[in-house]
Amino acid sequence: MARQAPKPKKEISMEDALWKSADKLRGSVEPAEYKHVVLSLFFLKFASDKFEARRQELIAEGKEQYLDMDAFYTMKNVFFLPPESRWTYIMEQAKQSDIALKIDTALFAVEKSNPSLKGALPDNYYSRLHIDTAKLASLLDEINKINTDDAEQDIIGRVYEYFLGKFALAEGKGKGEFYTPKCIVNLIAEMIEPYKGKIYDPCCGSGGMFVQSVKFIESHQGNTRDISIYGQEHTNTTFKLAKMNLAIRGISANLGEQAANTFSNDQHKDLKADFIMANPPFNQKEWRADNELTADPRWRGYDVPPTSNANYGWILNIVSKLSQNGVAGFLLANGALSDDGTELKIRKQLIENNLIEAIVILPRSLFYTTDISVTLWILSKNKTARTVEQNGVLKKYRDRRREILFMDLRQMGSPFEKKFVELTEEDRAKVCEVYHAWQQVGFKSHIRTYLSSATAQAMKRLPKRASLSCRAATSNS
Questions:
Q1: How far apart (Å, rounded) are the C-alpha atoms in residues 288 and 307?
Q2: Is residue 6's pLDDT more than 70?
Q3: Other C-beta atoms within 10 Å of 390: how many?
Q4: Are residues 57 and 182 in the same domain?
């Protein structure tokens, strides 16, 4: 009698798998810990599937003699996995009492075999959790159902996006700011256009700004070899996530020697960046003691930022890192526009130095972990008239000194997952066209002067809620 072929495993979406994974962890770990438990297992499954696919390629090409040579994997941005790190082995051992130790060993072996992952993966994490063997085996079984064929998926970002959305209340308001919604990161990238040069994020979180910057370059047929990435992250766990997130996408980055506080232990003291993208912690309190950092060179030419709120400390750190023609796009709470005292003095100094290019008020409910109003600041180190080559296109910028563009987007955005709002691709295109036209042509009788017919048509299709309010102001107005 012919032997029946085994039934193919049922594949499910990543989101479904995450929900079922969370269900397996209830009662074993705190909800805030779910993402950390699941994340490295997702990484191991993802990396293993890519390894096996590359292995089959080599066999198909008649290169069996190279199957155990790591160079033939890394050349394709695939991690080489020793036998004890492969997902098939983990699943074979899933019901063994020492499966937690085997997972820790697998992660250690992957990191040891791939220098780009140094310091990125957890150390003896699963052994310390003491999750019941049956629950851990069940969790592995859920993750085993995921289809990782989509090579473009930002696995770290998607896992974080899911868990922050589902468990933000359990984690508490104000936590998790290291995740910035993709629509906002895309808006910043599309406005400042980081095609070539050094990109820096002083509070890079899990690396989402860098991932989306690379996607922006790729989507505009740019060359990712034309950029170099620098970042810093304070929290050690998040620092590891950033390294994992970038490594799994083959993105090289200098995140400093260690997780460190940007203010007290700057990992890139001499850096001059062409583009800066950042989402600093909102209204960070007690970021320095009264007698600390008062003579820091980053404040040179400005008043010393107050200890009560780090907003202007972040601004001046960013200003100090800009190259001669550098551009920065970063997020701050709306209160940073109205603070008085020392903040007002620094704000006046920024205006007098012709650094503020644009102020963009964003819609509420864009973030998973806070509903406060947020502003996007665009700074430019050189607002003089000049011609710039961007991705093979020459752009002529007019003299914008003594001018600042204000844009109010609070009535824009579309509902997203019931509680939230997102800026759609059409929203962002509309904002960027206005902004870039203002930079190059100027601000005349009405903003629609600068809208192409294609964008004008897109505007007609936008919901009634969507609108854009803009005005240009001279710095003495």
A1: 6
A2: no
A3: 13
A4: no
Question: Residue 184: CA atoms inside 13 Å, Cβ hemisphere, count?
Answer: 28
Q: Which range of residues forms the domain containing residue 95?
A: 14-153
CA distance 315 to 297: 14
Express each pLDDT in 309-359 by its tens digit: 999 999 999 999 999 999 999 999 998 998 889 999 999 999 999 999 999
The whole model's pTM is what?
Answer: 0.82
φ, ψ for residue 278 (rounded to 5)? -155, 155
* Biggest CA-to-CA distance, the chain: 90
Domain CATH code at residue 84: 1.20.1260.30
**CB neighbourhood size of 268 (10 A):** 18
State residue 4's pLDDT score: 53
- DSSP one-letter string for 196-209: SEEEEETT-TTSHH
Model pLDDT, residue 55 = 95
Name residue, tokens 């601004």.
Answer: 315
Q: List pLDDT tens digits, range 67-122.
A: 999 999 988 888 999 999 999 999 999 999 999 999 999 999 999 998 888 888 88
Which pLDDT belongs to residue 29? Answer: 82
- Identify whether the C-beta of residue 231 lies closer than 8 Å to the C-beta of residue 207: yes
Both tokens of 204, joined, read 């890079």
As beta bridge partners, residue 359 has 377, 406
Single-letter code of the amino acid located at 456: A
- Please compute, for residue 263, the number of CA atoms within 13 A of its CA located in the half-sphere on the CB side: 23
Overall domain count for the chain: 2
Calculate the alpha carbon distances from 108 to 81, 141, 144, 436 in Å. 11, 21, 20, 48
Highest averaged pLDDT of the listed ranges 155-169, 186-200, 463-477? 186-200
Query: In what helix (H) or strand (E) does residue 330 lie, and over which residues does it extend?
Result: strand 322-333
Going by pLDDT thresholds of 50, 70 and 90, the confidence category of residue 477 is: very low
* Shared-domain flag, residues 239 and 145: no
The size of the chain, in residues, is 477
DSSP per-residue letters across 252-297 = --B--SS---TTTS-S-TT--EEEEEE-PPTT--S-S-TTSSTT-G
